[in-house]
Design goal:
The protein has no helices and eight strands. The chain has 148 residues and is an all-beta fold. An eight-stranded antiparallel β-sheet has the order 1-2-3-4-5-6-7-8, with no helix packed on it.
Length: 148
């Protein structure tokens, strides 16, 4: 479980995890010199057949527009070393544009705390791109090994 995720609940509406992400958008090296910021909430549920993630995010873009994003990610079974993944999202940048997009790809789980991913994204706004990334998990122990 990632450091910012909550333990699963045991009631009928159990949620595997709730996570948050915060970010700073640094100035573009060849374009806009302004900063931006982002915040996101992620709710995830894992079953034997796969995992679903619901993402909701907001940001202030580098050109100082408000931007809202919502998306769902579906992954194949977690026990598979390489599993398929698909993402569908809608993004509204107030003022300039909105985007409807889909991504298909794969996640390679190297070990419990390390995975690599690759995917192809197509957006209705004529955007086609290949994306690649890695995820590295680590324990967050602020007060020592026992957490006390």
């Amino acid at each position: 479980m990632a450091p910012n995720e909550r333990e699963p609940r045991s009631d009928a509406l159990s949620i595997h995890s709730i996570a948050t992400e915060f970010g700073v958008l640094l100035p573009d090296s060849i374009g806009d010199t302004r900063f931006g910021a982002s915040i996101a909430g992620i709710i995830s549920q894992r079953w034997d057949w796969g995992t679903a993630h619901l993402n909701i995010a907001g940001q202030l873009t580098r050109d100082q527009h408000a931007d809202l994003f919502t998306g769902i990610i579906l992954e194949g079974p977690n026990k598979w070393t390489v599993r398929p993944v698909a993402e569908f999202f809608y993004e509204e940048e107030f003022g300039p544009a909105h985007t409807v997009s889909a991504l298909v790809g794969a996640i390679w789980q190297v070990r419990d705390n390390l995975s690599f991913d690759v995917g192809f994204r197509h957006a209705i706004t004529n955007v086609n791109e290949v994306r690649a990334g890695l995820t590295y998990g680590f324990p967050l122990r602020l007060l020592g090994p026992s957490g006390k």
